[in-house]
């Protein structure tokens, strides 16, 4: 299975890194990327084929559109003829199937691109990704199997029945790693404010996160019960959690995810309109 990523940025890099660790061969993976330094980096780090924009599209079974949402209309329109009849995966946040179909001229004579929308996340790099996926109307059952194989090679996948669910997945697991990193950053900052050097702060904060996540994954208890087991009545954790509740930490996380979802819809409206 030969796969071309169009766009060799953060998310393509994460997926490529994970796929190479999980049985994909470097010679079946290619990236089209405008930046020469980035192409060289991808070649050096992964041994994949890295191509400039004016190179012909490498022969491939699957194309993954991995450019920013703001770049997607131009890229899809410019590549519509090359992508006709192929299995095309868009990982762009927000951008709707109807717009992709229009940009890719899915009424083209040599057959419409078979489109699948996917929302991956960057832990794909360490094969701990979580992806959402939705099959477009022209995609076939064997396309779903191929996409499923790619996504499972870098983590787990949730297939959704309705396209709008992808915006909800974007808000939780697509953007979610950033929420978690923000929490880790904050715990490091708290440790440094207690007088620890950066390395020790990192050890304390990262180790705590890793331990807590492993415990949660291995436990039959839900997260609320595990939280209660740390929280002694009248103790230190209660003092911390009361302060966090007073400052609205949980409400802020829920509202943040809602803002991410709203932004996905907004991006789709902004970028799909009149294009
Ligand atoms: N980052 C993440 O965690 C996630 C991102 N996504 C989605 O993945 C997509 C890519 O995001 P991300 O990797 O973060 O973005 P990046 O900006 O890191 O990567 C996009 C890359 O595409 C390049 N590019 C621009 N124009 C073209 C072109 N015509 N042909 C080929 N490549 C081009 C860009 O170059 P240049 O910078 O020079 O423009 C850049 O290197 C987005 O649509 C995003 O919504 C989905 C899930 C998670
Ligand atoms: O921030 C973004 O828009 C992209 C999509 C999900 C994660 N990063």
Automatic annotation (TrEMBL):
Cellular localisation: Cytoplasm
Claim: Metal-binding is one of the keywords in the record: no
InterPro entries: 6-PGluconate_DH-like_C_sf, NAD(P)-bd_dom_sf, P5C_Rdtase_cat_N, P5CR_dimer, Pyrroline-COOH_reductase
Keywords: Amino-acid biosynthesis, Cytoplasm, NADP, Oxidoreductase, Proline biosynthesis
Domain Pyrroline-5-carboxylate reductase catalytic N-terminal stretches: 3-94
Entry GO CC: cytoplasm
SUPFAM superfamilies: 6-phosphogluconate dehydrogenase C-terminal domain-like (SSF48179), NAD(P)-binding Rossmann-fold domains (SSF51735)
Pathway: Amino-acid biosynthesis; L-proline biosynthesis; L-proline from L-glutamate 5-semialdehyde: step 1/1
Catalytic activity from the UniProt record: L-proline + NAD(+) = (S)-1-pyrroline-5-carboxylate + NADH + 2 H(+); L-proline + NADP(+) = (S)-1-pyrroline-5-carboxylate + NADPH + 2 H(+)
Major localization class: cytoplasm
Pfam families named in the record: F420_oxidored (PF03807), P5CR_dimer (PF14748)
Residues annotated to bind NADP(+): 6-11, 66-69
Enzyme superclass (EC): oxidoreductase
GO molecular function terms attached to this record: pyrroline-5-carboxylate reductase activity
Enzyme Commission code(s) on record: 1.5.1.2
Every Pyrroline-5-carboxylate reductase dimerisation domain range: 163-267
Gene Ontology terms describing biological process: L-proline biosynthetic process
NCBIfam families: proC (TIGR00112)
Function: Catalyzes the reduction of 1-pyrroline-5-carboxylate (PCA) to L-proline.
Annotated protein name in UniProt: Pyrroline-5-carboxylate reductase
Gene name of the record: proC
């Amino acid at each position: 299975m030969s796969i071309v990523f169009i766009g060799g940025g953060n998310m393509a890099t994460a997926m490529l890194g994970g796929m190479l660790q999980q049985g994909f061969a470097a010679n079946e993976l290619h990236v089209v990327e405008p930046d020469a330094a980035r192409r060289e980096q991808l070649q050096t780090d992964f041994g994949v084929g890295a191509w400039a924009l004016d190179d012909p599209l490498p022969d491939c079974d699957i194309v993954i559109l991995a450019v920013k949402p703001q770049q997607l209309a131009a890229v899809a329109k410019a590549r519509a003829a090359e992508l006709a009849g192929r299995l095309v995966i868009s990982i762009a946040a927000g951008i709707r199937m109807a717009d992709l179909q229009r940009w890719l001229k899915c009424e083209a004579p040599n057959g419409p691109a078979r489109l699948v929308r996917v929302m991956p996340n960057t832990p794909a790099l360490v094969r701990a990704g979580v992806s959402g996926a939705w099959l477009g109307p022209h995609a076939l059952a064997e396309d779903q199997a191929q996409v499923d194989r790619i996504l499972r090679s870098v983590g787990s996948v949730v297939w959704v029945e309705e396209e709008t669910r992808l915006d909800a997945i974007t808000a939780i697991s697509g953007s979610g790693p950033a929420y978690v990193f923000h929490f880790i950053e904050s715990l490091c900052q708290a440790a440094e404010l207690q007088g620890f050097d950066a390395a020790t702060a990192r050890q304390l904060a990262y180790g705590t996160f890793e331990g807590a996540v492993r415990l949660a994954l291995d436990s039959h208890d839900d997260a609320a019960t595990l939280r209660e087991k740390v929280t002694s009545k009248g103790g230190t954790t209660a003092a911390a959690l009361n302060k966090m509740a007073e400052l609205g930490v949980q409400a802020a996380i829920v509202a943040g995810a809602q803002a991410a979802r709203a932004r996905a819809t907004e991006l789709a409206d902004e970028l799909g309109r009149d294009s």
